[in-house]
Each structure stands twice: as C-alpha cells, then as structure tokens.
Amino acid sequence: MRPVKKDLLISEFSIAGFIILCLILLGVLLFRVEHPYISGNLIPAILALFSFNIILGWLYFGALSALPIFAVSLFMLAFTAVVRRFPSELYIIFFYILSFAISFHQYRSTSLKRRMLEVKLEEEEGAANMLDAEYKHHMLISRALKNKLELLKGLKDVAGYLSATLRMEELAEKIAGEAMRLVGKSDQSLFFMVDDNNRELALAAARYPDKNGKAKDKKGDIFDQWVLKNRKPLIINDADKDFRFTKEAAAPNERTFKSLIVSPVAAKGILGILRLENAKSEAYDGDDLRILNIISNLAAMALENAFLYKRTEELAIRDSLTGLFVRRYFDERLDTEVKRALRMKYPLSVLMVDIDDFKRYNDIHGHIVGDMALRAVAGMIKKYTREDDILARWGGEEFSLIFPGKARDEACGVAHEIRKAVEAKRIIVRREDTRLTVSIGVAEMPGDSAVKNELMMKADEYMYKAKREGKNRVACLRSQ
After folding, report:
1. Which residues does 350 contact at the CB level (< 8 Å), separation at least 6?
2. Are 350 and 443 a contacting pair, CB within 8 Å?
3. Strand partners of residue 302
4. For every residue of the chain, which 3-state class applies, written as one string?
5. Between the chain's N and C termini, which has fewer beta carbons within 10 Å?
6. 72-87 mean pLDDT
7. Other CB atoms within 10 Å distance of the CB of residue 173
8. Which CATH superfamily is domain 168-316 in?
9. Cα–Cα distances in angstroms (integers) from residue 129 to residues 132, 133, 134, in the given order
C-alpha cells in the first residue's frame, strides 16, 4: 500500500474512533449521574450501535449516505427521551449532533486533503513515469552510441590493418577477413578482383568459420556479375524468392546460401567485389550493407596504394623501353638462383642474346625504328620464357636470360627456337620489310661454372663465338 493512501485510511478510522469514544463516554457519564438506578450499559450500547452504523455508512458509502442513518438514530433518541421523560437524553442528543458536526467537518477537511494528496500522487506518478521513459530512452541512446563507438573503433582498426599492407595477396586476405569479423553473421566471405585483361572476376581471397570451407565459384555468380556491371551494392534477403534473379540465378540445390550482401570495391574504376553470405534468409539488414560499403571504400584506397607501390617497384626493376627487368635486378636474381640450384642440386642455364649489326640498323633507319626493333625482339624472346624464368635487358641491344632447372641441351633447344623466331620476324619500316638476327651464347651450371660471375662470362664468351662464326647462330660449347 502506498504511504499516502495508508495515511488517509488511518485518518478516516481516527474520525470513526473519535465519534464512538465521545458518544460512549457521554452516555455513561450522563446516565450514571441522572439515573443511577438504570443500568449504565444499556444506553451506551445503543449509542455505540447507532454510531457504528453511521460510521460504516460513512466509510463505505460516503458522508451523504451516512445522513439517513444519522437521522434515524437521532429520531429514535428523541422519541425515547420524550416517551421515557429523561431530560438528560436531550443533552445526549445535543452532544450527538455536535460530535457528528465536528466529525463531518473533519471529514470534509480530510477529503479535501485526500483529493490534494491524490492529485499530488498522480503528478508524482506521472513524473516518475516520465523519468522512467526518459531513462529508458537515454539507455537506448547510450547503447546505440556504444555500438557506434565500437563500430568506429573496428573501422579504424580495419583502416590501420589495410594501410599497413602493400602486398596484394596479403591485402586480399585481410580484406576478406576483416569484412567477416566486423559485419559478422556470415558463413562465408569472398573477395574477387577484376582481371584487367579480360574484365572478369577472379577469386583473390576467401574466409570461412569452418577451416575446411571452399568456394565453388572462382569467377563469381550472377549476383557478383550484377554488381560488377551496375557498380552498385546489393542485398538479397532470400535468393530463392528475389524476383530480379530467380530466372537467371543458379538452381537452389547448387547454392549454399540464401542471404547475401555484395559491395563493389571501386576507386577511379572498379577493382573488385566484396561479398558476405549466410545460409539463412533475412540474415542481413541495411546497416550491415552500409558497414560492408565502408570496408569496401577502405579496401579500394588500400588497393590503390598497393597498385601504386607495385607499379613503383616495377619501375625500379624494369626497363622503361622493353618492360624487361634491368641488369641490377637480374644480377640479384642470378645470385639467388645459383645458390638455390647448388642447394637443391638441379641444373641452371644462362643465355646471352645480342642483336646482330644493330648499330648499322639504327644508322639506316633511325633511333625511333631502332627502339621499335628492340621492343619487338624483347617480345619474341619473352614468348619462350616460363613464369619462373628471368629475362632482362643486359644493356644496349643485349638481353640475358636465366633458365632455372634447365640443363644445357634443353636451354640450347630454346635458344635455337628464339633465333629462328627473330629471324622470321618482319619489321615494317616505311612500307619496307626489315629483318634482324641474333647471336646467342648458352652457359650451364655446374658444367661451365658454379660461380655467378664466371657463369655470365662463359655465356658472353659463347655469344661472341657465335658472332665470330658468322652471326645468327647459337653457341653452347667452346668446341662447337
């Protein structure tokens, strides 16, 4: 029970007690003085009964409802006084009326106080409800701000991780991993990069909660192609029911997801596609897609930096005219490859290639045509190299080539193919066919030498031997 209501109830019972006490005392005193021969218990009992009835009516039906009971009680007292001729009962009636009037006045005062307290109580309850609602509102705001703070901290960490990485493979892994960590809710995170040559998607990195997970589609599906084409983010709540892709998408039994969000990774142009998917429908909302877009933007800036770094690195190690490695880089790689070949005990061959009579060709046709010829020969040689082979412009019209794992005979075979291809190449200059030839020297490790500098000297020696013997030749052995 609330304190205010409890106080009001105590006040009402106090009024009732006051009436009963006054009437009983009055009846006992008067009747004992005036009529000692009459039992002192009769009249007080009657008064107590009348008063109790009045009070009950008062408390349960209100003050106005108690008036009829009071009138009946007063009439009975007056009638008894007249019939029995007890003048003292007139005093009882007077005090009876007086006590009722005092009690009624007290009741009115208490009722007014009660109404004021009830109004105050309602105001306090209203204020308490407002405070409670405001508290809940502030708690929601506090939780939202806390979530935003955690998100901003996570995005800051992502920006730090990505900006600290310049290697493309490592960067792709971090992009896929951070997207899965920050957005959550995902069974798979995929990052596709755009192949500049054919403008197709190629899977660069994938992350799964299960270490045994594996991406089935290495070039993206209809959803990724849509994002690549439109350069807009995409959210799918149920891949089986989405009207945009139902007819074109793969059959449902071939999919492992129902929900997905996809965002383009784009700077000046589109660089890739970042995708998260979940096996359940309705797994993602707009906030998740916004977070993925932010990560994609951060990834785009990081990729731009990585591309710039790679381009700068290549400029430092590649010849600007032919696009081949420079001599300094060739020397570093030859040292590494020689040590590896000795450690792994496999053969290694080195080729020295020189364009025959190139100075005279330049004098006749000019340096611009000479540069075209250099690029053409470099392109012909590059066609006969593998991914692990190292082709460099040694200087002027000379080229050098490292064949890790190839013995002399195999390297000589490739050298003859290069010589024939260059000889057959037609270079059109002012509607005139021009042709070039090359002389090639081949040295093998460990047959010729196991020392880097000596190996290059042997290859150079064989190349000059080919020139002395008439040019447009391949020299593989000193005795040849």
Report:
1. 334, 400, 401, 402, 403, 442, 443, 444, 445, 455, 456, 458, 459
2. yes
3. none
4. CCHHHHHHHHHHHHHHHHHHHHHHHHHHHHHHHHCCCCCCCHHHHHHHHHHHHHHHHHHHHCHHHHHHHHHHHHHHHHHHHHHHCCCHHHHHHHHHHHHHHHHHHHHHHHHHHHHHHHHHHHHHHHHHHHHHHHHHHHHHHHHHHHHHHHHHHHHHHHHHHHHCCCCHHHHHHHHHHHHHHHHCCCCEEEEEEEECCCCEEEEEEEECCCCCCCCCCCCCCHHHHHHHHHCCCEEECCCCCCCCCCCCCCCHHHCCCCEEEEEEEECCCEEEEEEEEECCCCCCCHHHHHHHHHHHHHHHHHHHHHHHHHHHHHHHHECCCCCCECHHHHHHHHHHHHHHHHHHCCCEEEEEEEECCHHHHHHHHCHHHHHHHHHHHHHHHHCCCCCCCEEEEEECCEEEEEEECCCHHHHHHHHHHHHHHHHHCCEEECCEEECCCEEEEEEEECCCCCCHHHHHHHHHHHHHHHHHCCCCCEECCCCC
5. N
6. 60
7. 17
8. GAF domain (3.30.450.40)
9. 5, 6, 8
Beta bridge partners of 428: 433
Q: Does domain 327-475 have CATH number 3.30.70.270?
A: yes
Half-sphere exposure of 373 (CA within 13 A, CB side): 31
pTM of the model: 0.52
**Would you state the structure tokens that stand for residue 34, as one six-digit string?**
């005036």
Q: Using one digit for the tens of pLDDT, what is the confidence trace for 397-430?
A: 999 999 999 999 999 999 999 999 999 988 887 7
Evaluate if residue 104 carries a pLDDT over 70. no
What residue spans define the domains of the chain? 3-126, 168-316, 327-475
Helix axes 168-183, 88-163, angle to 10 degrees: 170
**Residue found by looking up tokens 């611009």 in the block:** 368
Tokens of 3: 């304190």
Q: How far apart are CA 268 and CA 109, in angstroms?
A: 84
Residue with tokens 């420079």: 326
According to the model, what pLDDT value does residue 351 have?
Answer: 94
Amino acid, res. 49: L
Amino acid present at 221: D
Q: What is the mean pLDDT of residues 254-258?
A: 74
Tokens 């880097």, located at residue: 452
Cα–Cα distance, 70 to 91 (Å, whole number): 16
Q: What integer best gives the mean pLDDT of the chain?
A: 77
Based on the number of CB atoms within 10 Å of its own CB, is 130 exposed (0-12), middle (13-18) or buried (19 or more)? exposed
Token reading at 27: 């009846």
